[in-house]
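pasting for the record
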Amino acid sequence: MTGQMVAQTKPEVWNLKTCLEYARKNNIQIQKAKISTQESIIDLQQSKEALLPNLNAGSSLGLSYGKAQDDATKDFVNTASLTSNYSLSAGMTLFDGLSSYKTIKQNKLQTKVSEFTAKETENSIIISITQAYLQLLYAKDNLEMAKETAETSKAQLAMSENLLKAEHIARADYSQVKAQYSSDLYNVVTAQNTLETQRLTLKQLLELDIMDNFEINMPTISDDDVLKPLPSKTDVYQTALIVMPEVQSSSLSVDVANLSIEKAKASYLPSLSFSAGLETGNNANSTGTYLDQLSDNIGQSVGLSLSIPIYSRGSTKASVQKAKLSLESAKLDYTNTQKDLLKTIESLYQDAVSAQSNYVAAKEQLVAAEESFRLTEEQYSLGMKNTVELLTEKDSYLQAQQSLLQAKYGAVLSQKLLNFYQNIPIEL
């Protein structure tokens, strides 16, 4: 049913596709946007029915009491009179400067605007979920990296303890390694908290309950995925101008504003209305049966009403002027929407280019940092390197890992969003 949350079986393990499908059916903002569209459809139907005649029925019952002259005695006597009246009336506007037809056209466009607005809301949620999902993947990888780093520190601590016992290093060096191990354990806790925060963010976007289990699938992202050739920035923008709902909605809003001017000008024109009526009644004090009186008292009426505007104290002129200003504002909004879209695509494109370049550089840096750290660790075990040198190389190795992770997920996110603006479904 429209406007209600759709019951849907929740998967045990979520991937990006299931997240997006679930959000389309259950996200509250998307559901509210669909309700707004239904309201626009109702407004359109009502404006069409406004062209039809109206039909009203009415009745009244009255009791009067007072003196009246008796026909026979000519005396005034107290009498009671019970009367009833019944009516049926109809009317319709024959001409109103075509304002009603303009309203129908306007409501048709407004319905499309509402549909595009609903789609825009859906797109916003899809983008937010995609960002949150990739941030969650990054947080999971970061946690695994923190755990591996802690395990390495644990092994280094054990090695340092043996070196201390063999008097190959000073206790101060051993304390430094021990402090680093404690710091790495703390980083594991921090990474775990970040992961849970990102998980909560995604759960909230999906409108999941507090007790819902939420485990995500970790897809394999290869170098080919990260370094996919990017589409032309110009092609992305030209396609987005056609398919993005915010642009289509803004364009239709200009057409709606044009119709508002025509509707306002219609008030300068005469209006013509038609009316017809049928009425009857009875009086309890009159001779004749109830049905006979109703039949004898039937009255009929028909009429045309012409209204010619002569002077409206400037209200029509003001309405036209304001409608023209609204049109100018709608045109500026349309231009601004196009410019905002261009800024978004240019930023995404630049982010993708930078992330891919950073990924290539970070990968080379990681290979070098890993080899340097491995050699330093071996030399440390032989007493050829001190603790400061070991920890420095380890820090460089860790930074290279972080840089690679950031570039990896940054590149994938920018690519997915560039595809999205070309109306290509987001998949991972």
